[in-house]
What we know:
Layout: H1 11-27, H2 35-57, H3 61-86, H4 92-120, H5 141-152, H6 154-157, H7 165-185, H8 190-214, H9 222-244
Amino acid sequence: MEHYFPHEQLDVYGVALRFATLADGLLATWASSWAVHGQFDRAVESVVTNLAKAARLRATDAGVYSIECSLGSVLECAACLDVASFRGLVDAPKMQSAKEMLRQIARMEVGLRSSWEKCVMERPEAYGTDSERYFLHESLEVYQRSLQVHEAMDTLWQSGQTRTRHVKRIDELTTSLTLNIAEGNGRFSKVDHRKFLGTAEDAGTKLAAYMDLLAPASLVDTEKIKSYLREVMAMLSGLRGYLDE
């Protein structure tokens, strides 16, 4: 008689492994110097390993939390694909194929969490049950405005100076800003959501300072980028205030 690890019996785990294989193929074509490379690599691993942990703990508070961590990493992966597209690292067909698989994983994880939370008698948080809401962060104005920051920096990424000290930090901070907005939106716990928003705000604040450092070089329209950042920061502050209440 064969004995299986609990996670090996989850259908969603098999899908997550297939996505990991797809992600490996994408990562092989991305230069590791981009911040999104390491973030995507870690997020993919988090999807798989947190699923395994959740299966072991099953319908307990810790198990539900682990499935939420995996779901948050699914949304982070989706955001990584958006960032990668602005860096010219992935084309539309490959991104769509990857996102469809992520959507499937998210749908299955939300269903799994829903069945487990009934066992631990948790108070459910609104998140949505239809497939159109699994990437809800993509419809958020604050998320779209953060992507405009990436778009406005297109000439910077194409300038051939992407490995200079300031530009490397700008790459890291813009990536952090967008990814934390996405992952935070997938957390059911308001405490967790607020933590990710705080990290996004920190990234946005530092990014504004780096725009001032970059301004003399005139590589990009820093004032336009800062105007987008001001809107992002105002929205993040509003969201954080709502969660505080």
